[in-house]
Amino acid sequence: MEWFEVKIKVRYSETDQMAIAYHGNYFSWFEVARTEMIRGIGTSYKEMEEHGVLLPVIDVSCQYKVSAKYDDELVVRVKCTKYNGIRMDFAYEIIREADQALIATGATKHAWIDKKYRPVRLGKIVPAIHKKLLQELEK
Amino acid sequence: MEWFEVKIKVRYSETDQMAIAYHGNYFSWFEVARTEMIRGIGTSYKEMEEHGVLLPVIDVSCQYKVSAKYDDELVVRVKCTKYNGIRMDFAYEIIREADQALIATGATKHAWIDKKYRPVRLGKIVPAIHKKLLQELEK
Amino acid sequence: MEWFEVKIKVRYSETDQMAIAYHGNYFSWFEVARTEMIRGIGTSYKEMEEHGVLLPVIDVSCQYKVSAKYDDELVVRVKCTKYNGIRMDFAYEIIREADQALIATGATKHAWIDKKYRPVRLGKIVPAIHKKLLQELEK
Amino acid sequence: MEWFEVKIKVRYSETDQMAIAYHGNYFSWFEVARTEMIRGIGTSYKEMEEHGVLLPVIDVSCQYKVSAKYDDELVVRVKCTKYNGIRMDFAYEIIREADQALIATGATKHAWIDKKYRPVRLGKIVPAIHKKLLQELEK
Lengths: 139, 139, 139, 139
Fold this sequence. Notes:
The structure is a homotetramer of 139-residue chains. Chain A has 139 residues and is an alpha+beta fold. Chain A has a single domain, classed as Thiol Ester Dehydrase, Chain A, CATH 3.10.129.10. Chain A has helices at 26-41, 45-50, 122-125, 127-138, and strands spanning 4-9, 53-54, 57-64, 73-83, 87-96, 101-111, 113-114. In chain A, strand 4 (73-83) and strand 5 (87-96) form a beta hairpin. The longest helix of chain A is centred in the first third of the chain and has 16 residues, at 26-41. In chain A, 36% of the residues are buried. Chains A and D meet through helix 1 and strand 3 of A and helix 1 and strand 3 of D. Strand 3 (57-64) of chain A pairs antiparallel with strand 3 of chain D.
């Protein structure tokens, strides 16, 4: 799969007293990218939750290379690195627009579950999305 | 009603690059105080949500007197200023433990609703809590 | 002054278990609008901090009309309602893009200070910005 | 080094619409534990920043085992797993107080730097703290 990109700008509320973006906030940016990537495939994560499937996070990591600062324009790149109908993993890169500096790399791992927190096969509930995800992964 | 007090310590993640606690975070502190005050009455807000009633915020205000800083120990005081079975209002004060400086004052207004976002009379759903709230307000 | 508008989309991290955007987060959205409005005037808040002037919040309020939800596209409108060289106030409206519903209204009050938290006259430190702000307010 | 423990309670503002604590917030909890662990050693991170040394995060990871929910009382355990005067690493466990369930495990890696973001040897700037950290690690 190719990188899917979104742009965000670092908010004042996201900085800390070290005058850099607080490290925990990078995970919300990863999620913004994930949301738009799923929309790019032709569905929306919101709709999938309406179908009764959730995609909670089971593992995350992030490597901070260069500090992101207030008002920095960042490109957040995401790609799906694994999808087997039950599990779904993503990789990320954050690039500073101004000079293309690599700000951070990261990864998140997820499992499809239902509203009772039981694992589900996405293909059984929303087969159209399942098919699209498989097609995308082959690109 | 008398003030109900909780203690919190300003977290690093709550600071911004002005090296003070970000103003939006004060509302989470107000909520921590509200949660503990309701528990102090003999129920818990968590339980009330399990009874199917929610207490969303419809109006907030906050006056910032002195900046709260990282690692400051703060006393967050809350009292219920209005309760009529449908609406519920609270007032707040935040005091810096070290020197009793008044950090901020605030107020929030709420409405009891059900899970379909319709207004509800709390007394019809959880009469025991309704009675306790009325008793507390007379103190 | 006329309304200045920015668009934001509600992030998953901004929701709470009531399945609506957490009320404290509206203040970060107000700030995103403020940041872009100041840039629209021809400077940036980032630059102003580099000039040694800060614009902390001293009073906020917000009225929540309709709940904002995950993935909602929102227009955040801001205008400066007062500027006298020392103090600066803003008003806000949040509109849901899809149906133009009024989600919330709000206001924030600020004071220009230096890095030692002393009040400053903006006109003495960055006269060009001071002049532009006065011109904008007359529009 | 032995585990150092702090207790926290999941705040409403920390939940998301999946009705669990948002995964990015675990990193603020790790930081609360880190702050108190450093205080337990006899200094405070706040003081260290006043000495001109900062401890930014360069790598984080977290494994989510069981969802933390609103109002859950959690024990956040931290221990230093590496300290060589320049770098400092920590491991974490989050336990649910009620039933001792393991909620999450995690790790963060840090580097000591000065206010100009240059790497520093902690022993050169605050030798007393450097010595204490080495002693603690031998326990």
